[in-house]
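Good morning,

Attaching, inline, the backbone tokens for the sequence recovery test we're adding to the shared suite. The designed sequence is right after.
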């Protein structure tokens, strides 16, 4: 990070995501035991994005006294203009995407799922487009609106998740400053309820259904900040380390 900076790291991560999607769409047969599958076919790059988001936002709040309105407006201006542009372009190209996927020369599992998402997007376009317009599609369970997290612009499943994190992050750090017991209780609660919310929502675009990687980033930043500036007590350092290790074990499990 010191050599390429955060923007450079994000650029490399974006390239990693593009290569992974290209490989899976091109029909390469990736064996589940191969390292290439773990790196390109299982969403590792996106998960690292979430860790980086948790890490960067935590350091920002620990080192700056940023008003909530200013913070949120910065997040909105950074994400929404480009998001809305590509959402409109993708929505306009849905008929073309449907034709390409219906006539795809190779039978691939991911192509079949993308075809299903595209068909749902076209058949119930207005129902799916409105929550996408607000980047709120990750808040809707599949039982209410089928496949909502992955319709129209499938890649936006991660954007709605990240934006939910951006909204709740300031409140987490208020808890951290005022009462670490409540803060770590919320962390533990998120760990416990994640499987329940994932089953209830039917997708991983809701923050309580997919918070692990953000919390790994948060706890990593707390540990780093302690090492650099000793802004938290040794007790809280030990608690943060414990929860970080607990999350790492739960991810591997």
């Amino acid at each position: 990070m010191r050599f390429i900076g955060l923007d450079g790291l994000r650029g490399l991560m974006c390239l990693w995501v593009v290569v992974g999607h290209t490989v899976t769409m091109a029909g390469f047969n990736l064996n589940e035991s191969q390292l290439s599958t773990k790196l390109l076919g299982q969403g590792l790059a996106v998960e690292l994005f979430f860790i980086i988001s948790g890490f960067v936002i935590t350091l920002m709040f620990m080192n700056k006294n940023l008003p909530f309105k200013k913070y949120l407006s910065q997040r909105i201006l950074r994400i929404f203009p480009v998001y809305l542009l590509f959402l409109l372009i993708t929505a306009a190209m849905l008929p073309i995407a449907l034709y390409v996927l219906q006539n795809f020369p190779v039978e691939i599992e991911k192509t079949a799922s993308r075809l299903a998402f595209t068909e749902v997007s076209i058949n119930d376009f207005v129902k799916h487009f409105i929550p996408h317009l607000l980047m709120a599609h990750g808040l809707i369970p599949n039982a209410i609106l089928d496949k909502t997290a992955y319709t129209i612009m499938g890649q936006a499943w991660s954007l709605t998740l990240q934006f939910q994190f951006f909204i709740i992050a300031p409140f987490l750090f208020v808890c951290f400053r005022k009462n670490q017991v409540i803060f770590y209780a919320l962390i533990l609660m998120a760990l416990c309820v994640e499987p329940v919310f994932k089953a209830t929502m039917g997708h991983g675009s809701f923050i309580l259904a997919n918070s692990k990687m953000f919390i790994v980033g948060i706890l990593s930043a707390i540990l780093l900040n302690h090492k650099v500036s000793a802004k938290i007590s040794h007790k809280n350092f030990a608690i943060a380390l414990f929860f970080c290790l607990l999350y790492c074990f739960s991810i591997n499990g």
